[in-house]
Amino acid sequence: MTRFLIPIFSFVLFGTLSAFAEIPNHHIFYRTDKRAPLTKIEIVFLGAGTGADTPSQIGLAQTVRKLIWKTAKKQRHIDQLEALGTHLTLTTSETYQAISIYGLSENSDKAIEIICDLIYNLAFTEYDLKYVKSQLSADYKNEIKNPTYTEIKNLALSQTLGILKMRSLKTLNDLSLYDVRQYADRLLKTDVVFFKVISDRDSTEIANALRPLTEERKMRGQAGGFVHSLNFPSTNAKTGPAAFIFEGYSHLKNVFCLWIIPCGRTDEENYIPNLISDTLGQHPESRLLYKYFREELKLVYGTSCRYLSDQNVRYLEIYADPQLHNSEELITKMFDFIQNLPDNPRFWETLKEHRETNDISFVHDRSPQQRLNREVSNAIYNSPHRQGGFDAVTDDEVRAFLEKFFVPQNMIMIFLGPKDHIIEILNTHWPKIDIRVHNVKELIE
């Protein structure tokens, strides 16, 4: 029996779903918020999104998202929702596509019916596709005028760890009407669709309101739909040290620097990298990077450390922005700081301080939306939990992690600034480093 044949009355409203559990089809993640008569419902198509794009179809998920929005405008669904005091949002992430409605609780039943009518009456034309392609193409070209670090990192990680690029004009232009229609068909037949809900309404009322959508899905079946998987095309091999320099920034008076340290997969335990990230730089006024590089050495205006993930790669990202005359000293000291972290007594002192304040910071009350997002993220990525959480992480485990990952051969560096100046620094101090110079236009090619 397929998931679509599960009777609608089998809805279960779980308070907390085990991080190891598979999300059931049509599961409702629910939070009560009585502060206002408002309801937010996110319909999440798990397994769709940019992670389902192939190398020859980069941009397909975003293109379909734009086409759905254009259909909603053309068929006046947006006008109908606005008349009900409801806002429509379409979202594309690595692991899912989502359709969200947010508005007056008393109109949420009618709003769901409108969304159901929208998604089961999608009609894309050649004209629609041409229009959306032109929009996205213009967006791509505008964004490389002021590219974000996310886009620049993406290119570096695609060349070192094999992840998919975020954007490609070539594959965008090659997308056909058949491609987007096939994607939309798979979207509607997604293996697991679940719901994120924040409302002042009773949870059983919400489950009943969602029947038009779930009944329609039950009748249509699921063959050929998207299936959730974390098997992105990535590697976990040491790749460095590699340095990416992006041309077009010779006018800058600062050198903007990133050190990327890959440290495993997104479905692995994340307590240790989170501890390291917090210790080094999540709260700059009290963490080690800020105290050392800003307050003591006065080499940077800002510096930070974040624990992030991209597709199935997780990594720590260290940021710094020295002025040009401080750049050589900062780059060399940061390189040494990273590789010598296991034997840095100040790191262990700061880690101890962080452990003492960690319990207080983590019990701070989150908003209903934050608590809901955290629960859903844990369920999607199946991150392992350990008994005792952060308190159960030993210093020996942290040291072993640092000795494994905080090494030169596992370091990817990214620099924005005067190209010749940066190359001279790198060649002087690390003559065997792999230097790769790129033009920002490559971000969208």
Structure in words:
With 445 residues, this protein is α/β, with parallel strands linked by helices. It is built from 16 helices and eleven strands. It has helices at residues 60-74, 77-83, 108-119, 126-143, 149-160, 169-174, 177-188, 203-209, 211-220, 271-282, 288-296, 327-339, 345-362, 368-381, 395-405, 419-429; strands spanning 28-32, 38-46, 86-92, 96-104, 192-199, 242-247, 256-265, 300-310, 313-322, 412-416, 434-439. The strands form two sheets. A six-stranded mixed β-sheet has the order 8-9-7-10-6-11, with helices on both faces. Helix 10 crosses helix 13 (345-362). It is globular and about 65 Å long. Mean pLDDT is 88; it is low at 1-21 and 360-364.
What structural class should be given to the helix and strand makeup? alpha/beta
Largest sheet: 6 strands, mixed
Q: What value does the Rg take, in angstroms? A: 24 Å
The total strand number stands at 11
Secondary structure tally, helices: 16
Q: Give the percentage of residues in beta strands.
A: 15-25%
Order of strands, widest sheet:
8-9-7-10-6-11
Order of helices and strands: EEHHEEHHHHHEHHEEHHEEHHHHEHE
Average pLDDT, to the nearest integer? Answer: 88
- What is the helical fraction, as a range of percent? 40-55%
N-C termini distance:
45 Å
Shape: globular
